[in-house]
Amino acid sequence: MSQGQYVAATYAVVFAFVLVYVAIIAAKLARLQREVSDLLELARGRDGRRRPSAVAVAEGADERP
Fold it and tell me: Is pTM beyond 0.85 here?
């Protein structure tokens, strides 16, 4: 393997890591936007039924009747 091939392989690995990192951050951002949207809806009182508390949702519990 020549030096050029090693450099190209290194760039490919770094690019793959950056791509995975960006995908993870995008997924977290989408989840955070959904949670903020739900909290705004709850705060504005649009939903008449009882919803689980934010702490219970964060801990994985569900208080649905």
Answer: no
